[in-house]
Design a protein that fits this description.
The protein is of the alpha/beta class. It has 24 helices and 18 strands. The chain has a six-stranded parallel β-sheet, with helices on both faces. A six-stranded parallel β-sheet has the order 9-8-7-10-11-12, sandwiched between helices. A six-stranded parallel β-sheet has the order 14-13-15-16-18-17, with helices on both faces. Helix 4 links the parallel strand 1 and strand 2. Helix 13 runs parallel beside helix 15. The termini are far apart.
Length: 563
């Protein structure tokens, strides 16, 4: 008896002929790039290395576009941004040992932000594997062990026939909610050996859908329909799931105010009458959320930043929708719904009852007025004017990437991203050097739109080498460097904790960044708070990369955690 699915698996005559006559000169590296192409990849990031040369040689025989960065960590940040912008798994090609390990901080950020990165590393020859010390260059006793605590899944290859399946399995893992980075490693000899295996065509790696349990969404819909003061916290999971529209529809249907976390910027329209914006480090906002009788948390684990440094003490019932099982009810007891945000919000939309509330929009206005008054009382007009200038200069649909610097901390709370999936920062893991290489990855994803990167002078030195990458590939990234002479936010932390004179290790000798950019062939210029809007508008409108340097000592607004 023949089943329909058996017929679907039967190769055509052309496929059989091609399988029996593979092109000569192919290696294990070709199996890697053929698998990536078959999965739908078009662009890869990385750096070559001795053990990985089989992959890089195969790239020249493929249609894949290669973007080569100068430091593995920066290549990881670029892949992270490419994955965030496109929603596709971004291949990251690395070499063994030091090259692989240098990518760890970037993979930690990708994991914290649920960015789909497919890291493929070489490994020492199979003869040296097994935990011994054979004296191979770059050898680690257990390379994969360094990554197991960071990535979603680890896939180790030992033969050429395992390559397509391992990469396809990793691809599926990276794109199954919650998205995240994955790790594949392949020994040098496996990559270099000639192969007679057929050309890889169309591996199956369809991500699994994380569907909510219907009895849980039914109870959640009942609670929301009958709430007196519902509120919503929208996290990065809403953005990754492309669920912003469904979130807005639900909020409007039940008349619930929405605050977005720093990782969820853009998940809800900034100027919507129900928008509480992102003032999470503010006691007025915390009080408002604590007063909700039903609080819907979507795509957030309510971690340190999202909970106002764990001072948030909700009094009502929490409903938490979260794709990462480890984050479900990890900080607060809740009706936990383990599901993709888009599917769970759709289920709620179909079952929740419309809820009227004539007071809610006034309560939102009152809260935002209190927050604005508190910030205004601190007399920090420079910082706010810089954000205003940036917002006016940056096209509404252009992405921006923010490093761990004082102006970025302001932007988390005060910047209007204008659209979903346009504002990104390193706040997931909090590492320096994210903004510029990430912006390069976003520009590689869509070179028709200008991209903005914002760094401090300290963080800029982490990724200064990538000016060469920006120039080489003519990527349209404008890099705004705020030069305050050191690690500004750490300077503030030290002084707040230990007194005015405490600033150990925060003061830096730094280059003339504009002149340094020019030495790479990248236009560089100094700007000022008064000319920033005009200078940034001009830079963003011109093709290719550019650098603007703004000398300014900024201050952080005082966050309020407790009365």
């Amino acid at each position: 008896m023949t089943h329909d699915h058996d017929l679907e698996l039967r190769p055509t005559a052309a496929q059989t002929k091609a399988a029996l006559n593979p092109p000569p000169g192919r290696t294990g590296g070709d199996l890697v790039v053929e698998t990536l192409s078959g999965l739908g990849a078009t662009t890869v990031f990385g750096l070559p290395g001795q053990h990985a040369l089989g992959i890089f040689d195969a790239l020249r025989r493929s249609s894949l576009r290669y973007i080569g960065l100068r430091v593995e960590n920066n290549a990881g940040f670029a892949a992270d941004a490419y994955g965030r912008i496109t929603g596709e798994a971004a291949p990251l090609l690395l070499s063994t040992g030091p090259g692989a390990l240098t990518s760890l901080a970037a993979l930690q950020e990708a994991a914290a932000a649920s960015a789909p990165v497919l890291a493929i590393s070489s490994q020492i020859p199979t003869a040296g594997l097994g935990g011994g010390r054979h004296g191979y260059l770059h050898e680690l006793p257990d390379q994969a062990a360094s990554f197991r605590g960071v990535v979603k899944s680890v896939h180790q290859v030992r033969t050429q026939s395992q390559i397509p399946s391992a990469i396809a399995e990793a691809w599926k893992s990276a794109l199954t909610a919650p998205h995240g980075p994955v790790w594949v490693e392949i020994p040098q000899d496996v990559l270099l050996a000639e192969t007679m295996l057929p050309v890889v065509t169309a591996p199956d790696a369809t991500p699994e859908e994380l569907v909510p349990r219907p009895e849980l969404t039914a109870l959640a819909a009942h609670l929301l329909s009958n709430a007196t003061r519902p509120a919503i916290i929208a996290g990065g999971g809403v953005v990754r799931a492309d669920a912003s529209r469904k979130l807005r529809q639900l909020a409007e249907k039940i008349n619930a105010p929405v605050v977005t976390t720093f990782g969820g910027k853009g998940a809800f329209p900034w100027t919507h009458p129900l928008s509480l914006q992102s003032w999470l480090e503010d006691r007025h906002t915390t009080d408002f959320l604590e007063d909700a009788d039903v609080l819907l948390v979507v795509g957030s684990g309510l971690g340190e930043l999202s909970s106002n440094y764990h001072t948030f003490k909700p009094r009502g019932r929490i409903i938490q929708i979260e794709a990462d099982l480890g984050k479900l009810e990890s900080n607060h007891p809740a009706l936990g719904i383990h599901a993709d945000a888009r599917l769970a919000l759709q289920a709620l939309l179909e079952t929740v009852e419309e809820r009227r509330d004539e007071t809610v929009r006034n309560r939102v206005k009152e809260l935002l007025t209190k927050v604005a008054a508190r910030i205004a009382a601190q007399e920090l007009p420079l910082e706010q004017s810089l954000l205003t200038s940036i917002r006016k200069a940056l096209p509404a649909d252009s992405p921006s990437f923010w490093d761990m610097t004082i102006l970025s901390y302001w932007a988390w709370s005060a910047f209007d991203p204008k659209a979903p999936n346009t504002m990104h920062s390193a706040q997931g893991a909090g590492g320096l050097g994210y903004a510029f290489p990430a912006a390069l990855g976003a520009a590689a994803a869509d070179p028709t739109s200008p991209v903005l990167a914002v760094s401090g002078d300290g963080g800029a030195l982490y990724s200064i080498a990538e000016l060469a990458t920006a120039k080489q590939y003519a990527l349209p990234v404008t890099w705004l460097i705020i030069d305050d002479g050191g690690y500004g936010i750490l300077r503030e932390y030290l002084r707040d904790a230990f007194g005015e004179t405490a600033a150990t290790a925060t003061e830096l000798t730094r280059p003339d960044y504009a002149a340094l950019a020019e030495s790479f062939g990248v236009p560089g210029m100094w700007t000022s708070p008064e000319t920033l809007e005009a200078d940034l508008t001009k830079a963003l409108s011109e093709p290719g990369p550019s650098v603007l340097v703004l000398p300014a000592v900024l201050r952080m607004f005082a966050a309020t955690h407790l009365d």
